[in-house]
Amino acid sequence: MKWSKRISPTSVICLSCGLDIARKPYSLCESQNHAQYYVRRRKKNNEYRKKRRATEPYYGSGFNKETWNTYTREQYRKKKRELLERLGDKCVVCGFSDFRALVIDHISGNGTKERKLYGWQYLKMLHRSSIGDLKKNYQCLCANCNTIKEFERRWKK
Question: Do 95 and 132 share a domain, yes or no?
Answer without folding.
Answer: yes
